[in-house]
Amino acid sequence: xxxxxxxxxxxxxxxxxxxxxxxxxxxxxxxxxxxxxxxxxxxxxxxxxxxxxxxxxxxxxxxxxxxxxxxxxxxxxxxxxxxxxxxxxxxxxxxxxxxxxxxxxxxxxxxxxxxxxxxxxxxxxxxxxxxxxxxxxxxxxxxxxxxxxxxxxxxxxxxxxxxxxxxxxxxxxxxxxxxxxxxxxxxxxxxxxxxxxxxxxxxxxxxxxxxxxxxxxxxxxxxxxxxxxxxxxxxxxxxxxxxxxxxxxx
Length: 250
Prior knowledge:
By secondary structure, the chain is an alpha/beta fold. The chain has helices at residues 20-31, 43-53, 70-78, 104-132, 153-173, 194-198, 200-208, 222-229; strands at 11-15, 35-40, 56-61, 86-89, 135-140, 178-185, 240-243. The chain has a seven-stranded parallel beta sheet with strand order 3-2-1-4-5-6-7, with helices on both faces. The termini are far apart. The mean pLDDT is 96. This is SDR family oxidoreductase.
């Protein structure tokens, strides 16, 4: 029987690959056989990821927040192994500003990184996927895709937008074999959630709100990610898969 999760011969690009869930995603895809290009601002951290991941990898140190540079960044991404058939949009930002304190600058960079880049970077690579008749795009949603959290108005708005963007991208491109879905992580220990996990009472409270009774571990992401990036998800598109231990079910 064919291994539905085998990514040998596929080229993948993961943004936000220098840390957190993006780093984990890039490592998982490389170990599943894909040639992986990791994209992030911090070159040293990208090189550390490459040593950790093994496999066939390349790094592109770039700032995705400048939309005018996306074309040039896309060229760098396609240089090592060719245009990717798998795109994982894990780069993001959460300014954690109260609604009264949100600035136009904070709002704009949040929307750019979390919502605008996933669409326009995908748009660049869709023609190559269409030629092959196969592609996988995975956006990153959030608990705040459907829940309002304190000091999360800009982040929540961007992640709410990801849900609709995912459906719209699926409607536009799934007929060409390019499936678009999103993963919605719960609370995982990353740089972005260091403050949450540094507060034992808060971390325990979050765990108690899940159905499973614990917060996420990085390896909890592996199976859902491989499913959405592989032929195992041939008939799945336009969906937001919450990997949150049932947090949003309670």
